[in-house]
Amino acid sequence: MDPVIIKQEFLQLMETNRGIIYKVANSYCYDNEDRKDLVQEILIQLWGAFDKYDKQYKLSTWMYRVALNVAISFYRKETRRADVNMPINDAMINVAADGPNAELEADISLLQKFINQLNELDRALMLLYLEENSYREIAEILGITETNVASKISRIKEKLKQKFKTFNN
Amino acid sequence: MDDMELKAVWKAYDNKLNKLMELNLQTFKQLQVQKAKSKVEGLTPKIIGLILGQVWVLFLGSFAFLALSKMQLFFAVSVGAIMLITIIAMIAYIRDIALIYQLNNDEDITATQKKLAMLQSSAINTVRISVLQLPFYTTFFITTHILSNGSVPFLLFLAFLIGMFTFMAIWLYSNINYKNIDKKWLRTLLKGSGWESTVKAMEFLNQVDEFKKEA
After folding, report:
1. B52, B93 in Cβ contact below 8 A?
2. What is the DSSP letter of A98?
3. What is the pTM of this model?
4. Burial, A89: exposed, middle or buried (Cβ in 10 Å; 0-12, 13-18, 19+)?
5. pLDDT by residue (tens digit) across A49-100?
6. Which residues touch A158 (CB under 8 Å, ≥6 apart)?
7. What sign does the dihedral A82-A83-A87-A90 (CA atoms) show?
8. Can you tell me the mean pLDDT for A98-108?
């Protein structure tokens, strides 16, 4: 196939599925400038692996694998750790604390904060779960069994509920 | 907060993100060039390490050859063994470098991250193989003259020393691995600058194992 067409197809797919890239990048990188780098890095790696993408599998499964692998590696890079380990500041937590959707905004910030407190792999698991991927897809993306996915999700969800409960009381 | 509420909050977050972020596809081409360059730059210290390793092997080889020509057998065998172990450590190092090019980000997360962390902690493999050299540092000065004329207590001490170093080398070879990174002795051994990233990679390997373990 013509390389120009392949690239156009790729860019079209990325535009349609950009939410996957944003959410993964946002879950592993808090600094605005670093996040832009991470988004670009994910795009480059997706493009690099695009010729090997087997269309009989779901595009989202492939995209999550690449994006999460790049994001986790990025997060673990020592030079970035100082930024990543910074506690989430108030500005990030209290996004639009007033107005008609104040409660929802507060919940979004809290959920984001709690997820960011999970370790790299649990965070990936929770992200995939909240994105409504099936247990089978999550297991395929992460390389663990479906039973393991189910028990881990249940445990993390319980922790999250407890944290919301404590915070709201 | 129940399951539905949790997912509703996530959905709202999704909508918010879509509004806030913009995918910059314009700079895409330019960045591809930059990344290709940075991958090569990351290899430079490893290639320098390999060149230094080769120089060390050549140096040891010349010594072994010289000792052999003068019939200093213990010296030649000891230096030869140290050289051989250095070569094995270098081969393991080259294999790790080759693995960098086999890493696939489209494989499952635990497999890719484990391979990556293994690579990041590969310096520990070089140390692990290198400790096998230890006993040979206690034998290179032995000569047939010492063996035939040395006093019994001295020879017993020598045998004890060789035995102790051999035991220590085998023990360290078997126990230096990421599964023992929480042990105090290994932490002490890897204390100091230059080992932080290796220790972190070893800790992450345990985290991956733990994650894969059925609950």
Report:
1. no
2. S
3. 0.80
4. exposed
5. 898 888 888 899 999 999 999 999 998 884 445 544 444 333 333 333 445 5
6. none
7. positive
8. 70
A155 neighbourhood in chain B, CB within 8 Å: 215
Would the CB atoms of A112 and B13 count as touching at under 8 Å?
Answer: yes
Angle, vertex CA B112, rays to CA B108 and CA B114, nearest 5: 120
CA atoms within 13 A on the CB side of B156: 3
String of DSSP letters for B50-116: HHHHHHHHHHHHHHHHHHHHTT-HHHHHHHHHHHHHHHHHHHHHHHHHHHHTT--TTS-HHHHHHHH
The A residues from 30 to 69 touching B (CB cutoff 8 Å) are 36, 39-41, 43-45, 47, 49, 52-53, 62, 65-66, 68-69
Q: Is A135 on the interface with B (CB under 8 A)?
A: no
Residue with the two structure tokens 């990325």: A14
Q: Which residue has the tokens 């107005």?
A: A99
Q: Which of B14, B113, B215 lies at the smallest CB-CB distance from A151?
A: B215
Nearest CA to A80 out of A90, A70, A65, A89 is that of: A70
The reply to whether ipTM tops 0.85 is: no
Give dist(CA B160, CA B147) in Å, integer.
15
Instruction: Give the whole-angstrom CA distance, residue A115 versus residue A64.
Output: 17
Nearest to A104 among B12, B23, B35 (CB): B12
Length of chain A, please?
Answer: 169
Radius of gyration of chain A, Cα coordinates, nearest whole angstrom: 17
- Biggest CA–CA distance in chain B, Å, is 87
Chain A nearest CA to B87, separation (Å): 30
Is A144's CB within 8 Å of B212's CB?
yes
Residues in CB range of A129: below 8 A, 6 or more apart: A138, A153, A157
Neighbours of B52 (CB within 10 A): 10
Q: Which residue type is seen at B66?
A: L
